[in-house]
Specification:
Number of helices: 14
Bound molecules: D-gluconic acid, magnesium ion
CATH topology of the largest domain: TIM Barrel
Helix content: 25-40%
Length: 409
């Protein structure tokens, strides 16, 4: 099974996606998701210029060797562009191997450790009635765990609130990237946020009771001491997790948060190797690993991160917003099903155009996901359909404080 062709396919049905498509000499096709939100074309160039030529004629069965070769021979290690490119190769090779074996990919990872995967959805609102409606709508769709994002009085736009995005013409529940030549500027005020959020969670608990698992994403905006204060103030509302409460380039920042609160902590959607987690896992400073399979180098290294985390009873919460393509989502679901320390899976359904480009076998039933039983990942790329939607420049927004200082978005 030698690699005969490697194509990098860019398509923008509802948003931009980059897919690596490997074809072997015996005619099998393997897919890998190489999408890096807002920086898509950098990964396209990395793959086309520096990876595709190295893959020609290689034995597609040698997944680990190919991964180590791409990681080590580049000399320049880590980084989101490099690791998204390597991830696409790794996932495409797993897809091929599983197709060659005639099995769904999770079987090659050790088989199913559970029957179904708990998913969480994204509820949000500009005020309490809108947020309550959104929670009810998600419950109606079957979700058993729900992320809560809310507007903050005095702020014009904030991460994760769908109605704001919808009023600017967005179709999804929440898709922050905007098709435009420049990134949109949003505003931020930490004091206003910290003053408002606990009252929202209190109201949600009062309305929906103590049993519904609730999550919240701070999106990297707090200092460690602010995050510690927030975690403590949210303890009465029993969060499933508090996500990205402070940027984790400084892993010791999480130590400070941990010393002050028992609110469970999730982090890592912007991480791309096990090294980003080294202190966090070893010193038990977090509870959930948030990396995307597609941004952390693929299934092979994610499996290793999760096995390392398992020694410390740390679980998975794999990143699954709409900027992860159905190929990347399927990769996450196969891994989720196989590992023992699965926690929860983020799920934001894609739109109809995207689902017509990527034909999928995974299912969402009464709040649970399953990757399906088709050989490989269970996703096919409809190349003609993909060709209808050329790349469109799109950026994530960014933040400024009232005095004009750029803040973490
Ligand atoms: C999440 C994330 C996303 C990111 C997006 C950036 O928890 O799902 O925070 O919404 O903002 O993936 O590309
Ligand atoms: Mg997040």
């Amino acid at each position: 099974m030698r690699i005969d062709r490697a194509e990098v396919i860019v398509t923008s049905p509802d948003r931009n996606f980059v897919t690596l498509r490997l074809t072997t000499d015996d005619g099998l096709v393997g897919l890998g998701d190489a999408t890096l939100n807002g920086r898509e074309l950098a990964v396209v160039a990395y793959l086309q210029e520096h990876v595709v030529p190295l893959l020609m004629g290689k034995d597609a069965h040698r997944i680990e060797d190919t991964w180590q070769f791409l990681y080590r021979s580049a000399y320049w290690r880590r980084g989101p562009v490099t690791m998204a490119a390597i991830a696409a190769v790794d996932v495409a090779l797993w897809d091929l191997k599983a197709k060659a074996a005639g099995m769904p990919l999770y079987q090659l990872l050790g088989g199913a450790s559970r029957d179904r995967l708990l998913a969480y959805g994204h509820a949000s609102g500009r005020d309490l009635p809108e947020l309550f409606d959104s929670i009810r709508k998600h419950q109606g769709l079957g979700y058993r765990a729900i992320r809560i994002q809310t507007s903050v009085p005095g702020l014009n736009a904030i991460y994760g609130v769908a109605a704001q995005a919808q009023s600017s013409g967005k179709r999804y529940d929440y898709e922050p990237a905007q098709r435009a030549d420049l990134p949109k500027e949003e505003d931020w005020d930490t004091r206003a946020y910290l003053g408002h959020l606990p009252s929202v969670l209190e109201a949600v608990r009062a309305e929906f009771g103590p049993d519904l698992p609730l999550l919240h994403d701070c999106h990297h905006r707090l200092t460690p001491i602010q995050a510690a204060k927030l975690g403590k103030s949210l303890e009465p509302f029993d969060l499933f997790w508090l996500e990205d409460c402070t940027p984790a380039e400084n892993q010791d920042g999480l130590r400070l948060v941990r010393q002050h609160t028992t609110t469970p902590l999730a982090i890592g959607e912007v991480f791309n190797t096990v090294w980003d987690y080294q202190t966090l896992i070893k010193d038990q400073l977090i509870d959930y690993v948030r990396s995307a399979v597609t941004h952390a180098g693929g299934i092979s290294p994610m499996r290793k991160i999760m096995d390392y985390a398992a020694q410390y009873q740390i679980k998975s919460g794999i990143h699954g917003p709409t900027d992860i393509s159905p190929v990347g989502m399927a990769a996450a679901l196969h891994l989720d099903l196989a590992i023992h320390n699965f926690g929860i899976q983020e799920f934001m359904p894609h739109g109809d155009l995207t689902n017509a480009v990527f034909e999928q076998s995974f299912t969402f039933t009464r709040g649970y996901l399953h990757p399906g039983e088709r050989p490989g990942l269970g996703v096919d790329l409809e190349v003609d359909e993909a060709g209808k939607y050329p790349y469109q420049t799109a950026y994530l927004p960014f933040n400024r404080l009232q005095d004009g200082t750029v803040h973490d978005w």
